[in-house]
Design brief:
Blueprint lengths: L4 E12 L19 E10 L2 E7 H7 L4 E4 L4 E4 L1 E3 L11 H8 L4 H6 L4 H9 L3 H17 L2 E7 L6 H17 L3 E9 L10 H22 L7 E4 L8 H14 L4 E4 L7 H7 L4 E4 L5 H8 L4 E4 L2 H6 L7 H6 L4 E3 L13 H11 L4 H7 L2 H5 L18 E4 L6 H4 L6 E6 L2 E4 L1
Parallel strand pairs: 1-4, 6-7, 7-8, 8-9, 10-11, 11-12, 12-13
Antiparallel strand pairs: 1-2, 2-3, 5-14, 14-15, 15-16
Helix pairs in contact: 5-6, 6-7, 7-8
The chain binds N-(iminomethyl)-L-glutamic acid and fe (iii) ion.
The site of fe (iii) ion (FE) has 5 residues, from loops.
């Protein structure tokens, strides 16, 4: 083992290892264990952490290796962004102005704008155009520390374009270093052509699109199926439709995610728990009894504070209640052209500290380890304890609490993926 060790990374300031809790996410009120080592170091071999501890002891164990000196900067696991809609074409700046003037997101959507506006632009695009528009966003996310990024389809809402979005994700994986996790979100909205027959669109999803996604995943050489996600909301999919699609997807072997309670509670959180979804996302209008259910389940609670902020809505995820109920809370950007064009996990953390009342330490764990569990990758990324990928970031300050405290500039000065510096 010792011969293969190639790098020591050390910080005279804070190394946050973010340990898993009994092999799982950090749950409930125990969220926030940073595993902080002052003057700490990592030893890296073949892209993975093999040791983490006080610098002197790591040095003694692995003498004479190449060293990366972080100075006094905070050394953290790379951020995991477990919820984005990054592959889209065009923008919705005009809708942003309409919302400022008083129109609501759901009103704009009901009038044929919103998600459908981006669908029209994305349907007209080739895979190459999708990649060309998305790659700069992904590079900016990476520059803000995101070393693992989930990306949803959902701007096709027809088989061919949904598959092109999956191909775009595969191509983006080949063109840049962040690890990408695909999600099929054919159930993002009822497309205009099915407006009067939404159940027929659910039939199409079940009978045609799910099998096509299974086949495309094989063709792309993916080792496992993407997640299957659905937007359960008034104006999108109701609970019965959600149950029908996700039950079928689960039977085909898709791991599940679901957008729930963004504006109104429809019972989607209960469904997520019942179906064993890997995560339930948004969770703003979630009723107390469903918070309790989620708290007792293994489904990760993903909060997206950039979304109410982006919409200038006053309501955020009731994070303290979720923690009291024992839930495993994670954070994501939700980067999308409608509600939250945010390419910065540190900004999501800054919002979470203020509006979810998380401490910086809690928000950091939610955006690293717990976010990795929201992607089923909690044993591979999101921590800097031995065995995990050596995906790490350096922050341009000496106290981790400055993450959250400060906002509006990028604190990330170096990003490494698998022990290799990719930014900085
Ligand atoms: O997570 N809520 C649904 N989907 C996105 C918004 C997508 C869009 O408006 O384009 C969200 O907020
Ligand atoms: Fe979303």
């Amino acid at each position: 083992m010792q011969e293969t060790v190639e790098l020591i990374v050390h910080s005279a300031g804070e190394l946050c290892t973010v340990p898993p809790e009994a092999g799982g996410p950090q749950r409930g009120e125990r969220l926030g264990e940073l595993g902080l080592i002052r003057d700490g170091a990592l030893a890296v071999a073949e892209g993975r952490v093999v040791a983490a501890g006080p610098t002197e002891s790591v040095r003694r164990r692995y003498r004479g290796l190449r060293e990366l000196d972080a100075g006094g900067r905070v050394l953290l696991p790379g951020f995991v962004d477990p919820h984005t809609h990054l592959v889209w074409v065009g923008d919705r700046a005009a809708e942003f102005e309409q919302r400022i003037a008083g129109a609501t997101y759901l009103e704009i959507m009901a009038a044929g704008g919103g998600i459908m506006a981006t669908v029209r632009a994305t349907r007209a695009a080739t895979v190459g155009q999708m990649v060309a528009e998305t790659l700069p966003r992904l590079r900016r996310l990476l520059a803000h520390g995101a070393t693992t990024v989930e990306i949803k389809t959902g701007y096709g809402l027809e088989t061919a374009t949904e598959l092109r979005q999956l191909r775009a994700i595969a191509r983006l994986q080949a063109e840049q270093p962040a690890r990408l996790v695909p999600t099929f979100l054919g159930a993002h909205a009822i497309p205009a052509e099915y407006r009067d027959a939404p159940d027929a669109y659910v039939d199409l999803l079940i009978e045609t699109m799910l099998p096509a996604v299974v086949e495309e995943s094989r063709a792309l050489g993916w080792a496992s199926l993407p997640f299957c996600d659905l937007f359960c909301e008034r104006g999108a999919f109701d609970l019965a439709q959600a149950r029908r699609l996700l039950t079928r997807a689960k039977a085909l072997g898709f791991p599940l995610k679901i957008h729930v309670d963004e504006f109104e509670p429809l019972g989607g959180t209960r469904l997520a728990v019942e179906l064993g979804a890997v995560s339930a996302d948004h969770l703003v209008a979630t009723p107390p009894e469903e918070i309790a259910l989620l708290g007792r389940s293994s489904t990760i609670a993903v909060s997206l504070p950039c979304t109410p902020f982006g919409l200038a809505e006053p309501h955020y995820t009731p994070a303290r209640a979720l923690l009291e109920a024992g839930a495993a809370l994670a954070l994501a950007t939700d980067c999308n052209p409608g509600t939250a064009w945010c390419e910065s996990p540190p900004f999501a953390i800054a919002l979470a500290c203020r509006y979810l009342r998380l401490t910086p330490a809690q928000a950091i764990v939610a955006a690293t380890l717990n976010a990795a569990f929201a992607l089923g990758l909690g044993e591979e990324v999101g921590s800097l304890t031995p065995g995990y990928a050596a995906d790490f970031v350096l922050l341009d300050f000496e106290d981790h609490r400055h993450l959250g405290y400060r906002f509006g500039t990028n604190p990330v000065v170096l990003v490494a993926k698998g022990g290799r510096v990719v930014v900085g």
